[in-house]
Specification:
Strand order of the largest sheet of chain B: 1-2-7-6-3
Structural class of chain B: alpha+beta
Helix content of chain B: 10-25%
Order of helices and strands of chain A: EEHEHEEHEHEH
Radius of gyration of chain B: 18 Å
Oligomer: heterodimer
Radius of gyration of chain A: 17 Å
Distance between the termini of chain A: 25 Å
Distance between the termini of chain B: 52 Å
Largest sheet of chain B: 5 strands, mixed
Number of strands of chain A: 7
Helix content of chain A: 25-40%
Strand order of the largest sheet of chain A: 4-3-5-6-7
């Protein structure tokens, strides 16, 4: 059962810990800030669409950062956009998570040397939880990134410091 | 339809010294060179004359010719002094089905070219881009701001050959 320590004869009673129930609730409804930057965003949209169906993991796009739990940085981050991303991130309520999708937002990608306009990695501005490599990553890779994030949330603790 | 040589003869007769020369030795289209401070009236003529009717500005772009004196600085970078920056105009007549390439060269230390915004409205953003990337000032342009780079970018003009990245922008490190 994973979440449940014990199931009683009466179906309405379950036994669990506060940590487990909070983590389970968080990782099962990761509402996503609806936000795309470049070609990675096309793959992200494909992941959201019926074929790969992000929704089955509880990922629903939200139009406002106030209602979002995760933000997927999907594409090339220019300096001009980086200041905006930082503001969107600050507007999201805690707990909040970040998936950095694709080479550009991981480390600058093909623009690492001559990209005068490109931030060489979104982690220079905001803290990243999961990096998804690829250029652009296929939907399977993004799903794997999401499952990695869910595992990370599953092991979170209210009292202990977690990585 | 008119060839570039015919148009050059027409312009030379009408504008004299403002039209510098025609270069037909290039592998592709011939290019007419024009005085940068008289390009506007020539463009009005090209657009409105019955036999030319260049109603479409297909492209306007800057070029760094990189033909100035190159000075090696102490930090290993090179700075170019003097030389020229060029603006290239590709015109097309949709009614008469002919094309024309113009170019103006201006000095790199104080690059000034007249705007053609009033002639073709689409030149507005093209000229802003040429300003953004090369620092070419378009005289009488209605709104000469940066268009792609941030408005408060102080690192210089990125497509110039001697451009080097600034170390930081708003606290974000620029180099890899």
């Amino acid at each position: 059962m994973g979440l449940l320590d014990k199931q009683f004869n009466d179906d309405n009673i379950v036994l669990t810990t506060v940590e487990d129930i909070l983590n389970w609730a968080r990782l099962s409804s990761l509402w996503q800030m609806s936000f795309g930057l470049a070609c990675c965003a096309i793959e992200m949209m494909a992941t959201s669409a019926s074929h790969y169906d992000f929704d089955r993991f509880g990922v629903i796009p939200r139009p406002s950062p106030r209602q979002a739990d995760i933000i997927i940085i999907s594409g090339t981050v220019t300096f001009k956009m980086a200041t905006r991303i930082k503001r969107i991130y600050e507007q999201m309520p805690d707990p909040k998570y970040i998936i950095s999708m694709g080479s550009c937002s991981n480390c600058g990608g093909p623009y690492w040397e001559h990209g005068y306009h490109v931030l060489k990695g979104i982690d220079r501005v905001i803290p990243v939880d999961v990096y998804v490599p690829g250029c652009p990553p296929r939907p399977e890779a993004l799903l794997d990134g999401l499952l990695t994030l869910q595992n990370k949330i599953r092991n979170e603790s209210l009292v202990k410091k977690t990585v | 339809m008119k060839s570039t040589e015919e148009i050059f003869a027409l312009l030379k007769e009408k504008f004299g010294d403002a039209v510098l020369q025609v270069n037909t030795k290039l592998p592709k289209e011939a290019v007419i060179e024009i005085d940068p401070l008289q390009i506007t009236k020539i463009c009005w003529f090209l657009r409105d004359t019955e036999e030319l009717l260049f109603d479409n500005l297909m492209l306007l772009t800057g070029v760094d010719d990189s033909n100035g004196e190159k000075i090696k600085l102490d930090d290993g970078t090179t700075e170019t002094k003097g030389g020229t920056l060029t603006v290239v105009y590709h015109l097309e007549s949709m009614t008469l089905k002919h094309k024309l390439v113009l170019r103006v060269s201006t000095n790199r230390d104080n690059p000034e070219v007249e705007t053609v915004c009033k002639v073709w409205a689409c030149a507005n953003w093209h000229e802003r881009e040429a300003y953004d990337m090369f620092g070419i000032k378009f005289l009488n342009h209605p709104d000469l701001r940066r268009i792609l780079m941030p408005y408060d970018w102080e690192g210089g003009f990125p497509l110039r050959k001697d451009y080097t990245n600034p170390e930081f922008y708003h606290g974000m490190k620029v180099p890899y």
